[in-house]
Amino acid sequence: MGNVATPISIIPEPSSITANPGFFSLDGKTAIAASADLDKLGFQLQQDLSPATGYDLPVVRRAGANCIKLRTSKSLSRLGPEGYTLTVKPNEVEIAAFSPAGVFFGIQSLRQLLPVENYRRAKVDGVPWTAPCVSIEDQPRFSWRGLHIDVGRHFMPKEFLLKFIDLMAMHKMNVMHLHLTEDQGWRIEIKKYPKLTLIGAWRKESMAGHYDENRYDGIPHGGFYTQDDIREIVRYAQDRFINVMPEIEMPGHSQAAIAAYPELGNTGKQLDVGTKWGVYENVFNPDDTTIRFLQDVLTEVLSLFPSKFIHIGGDEVPKNQWHASAEAQAKMKQLGLKDEHELQSWFIEQMDKFLAAKGRRLVGWDEILEGGLAPGATVMSWRGEEGGIAAAKAGHDVVMTPGDSTYFDHYQSRDRKAEGVAIGGLLPLQKVYAYEPVPKELTAEEAKHVLGAQGQLWTEYIPDPKRLEYMAYPRACALAEVLWTSAKQKNYSDFLLRLDAHLKRLSILDVNYRKLDGK
Fold this sequence. Notes:
With 519 residues, the protein is α/β, with parallel strands linked by helices. The protein has helices at 39-53, 100-113, 158-170, 195-198, 227-238, 255-260, 288-304, 320-324, 326-335, 340-357, 386-393, 403-406, 416-419, 429-434, 444-447, 465-472, 475-484, 492-508; strands spanning 16-25, 31-34, 59-60, 67-72, 84-89, 92-97, 130-138, 144-150, 175-179, 181-182, 185-186, 202-203, 207-208, 215-216, 221-222, 243-250, 309-313, 361-365, 378-381, 398-400, 450-457. The protein has an 8-stranded parallel barrel with strand order 8-9-16-17-18-19-20-21, surrounded by 6 helices. The protein has a 7-stranded mixed sheet with strand order 1-7-5-6-4-2-3.
């Protein structure tokens, strides 16, 4: 922790900390001073502190003695929209930032300066509520600090997503990538096409055990979010300065939708919602009516998600059905396309133009590079970093998501029996922490296209919230520091010291994290 003598366990580590003598004591006479534009954050802080301390701190306009002061200042524009300063003195705490987002992230650091018990949801007697006197100046390295949750393979309740958002906020993450549609389930209500959830949200059983065992559990599985659910999730995240980016998969990973509306497929056959994991041959056909159908879906999605970025998947699209389809081949001939890869690019480009006309930006997995990249597309590079490097060199924005460093569905140790069933691969905590999102192959100018990175939680082998927490934490703590803290500051031994204290917070918050090796 550099020049800080007092044990401080803030994760992710701030840009700079200077330790000063003394402590600030929070008691029943403490007030929260907030300007009108920060009222909501003042009351959030009040609600955060009240259950454990027993104090309902008043939110006031003018700062006095023994006060927590929240303010914005144009002079702090140098720290960007999410940076902040946090100054703890014996008689005052001040959190200042250029924007409310920065104040919010400063509050998260203040909470980590207080005793870990402040995360309890019930009053804790006998704990001195003190914070060490420090001066912090802080700002994130990357603008995109994300976690991806696949609710298509296994549905996760709305209440858990709200808890997950709280955990992301505590770690200063700011993008939740919500993977809403899959072969195995369609999870969002679309009012124009009700069968997407009436039929597509439910499957008769799920694959059990490893893929090569070909076993099934015989248990029906399903669920979906109503549009009101989505509005609540988005609003809750916005209050914590987290953007929820939806993913509607196309043209592959689409069997659940085709099961609901067979005319969207290439064979005309009635399909079941998928029950096995892996890649399915059934993909959307490239007819104009299918394009309009999916743009109708996106129209409703856009009304629910204010996110500038909208993810349309684009990965793992078998071309066999298009190759065998007279209609698809006629479409290729009509458009002057040489192969099915170019047909997929045309398909993606229709969505890119549609989203651009609505003021949004398309995001897709790196397969959208094949056959030519749509002009406004942002690429998520998951099959290594090559796709991200190619996209950045071509002037496209990139979010780094390589499987070997960011796929949290991979095993956490070599002791697979102890870890339980996972999809494969090995991604221990130290490897996550060692990840560097900017490839060395990029020039300084090209590197500006790397918006950041995110961790992926694919849920084929993550059937419930507790298992998801186990797979996410503490690896998400490590990734949070990779994305917030400057690369030159990173120190794994120091991170582990802070993490040891930080995990007590996660315990209090009932997070089923994986214990550190040797603990």
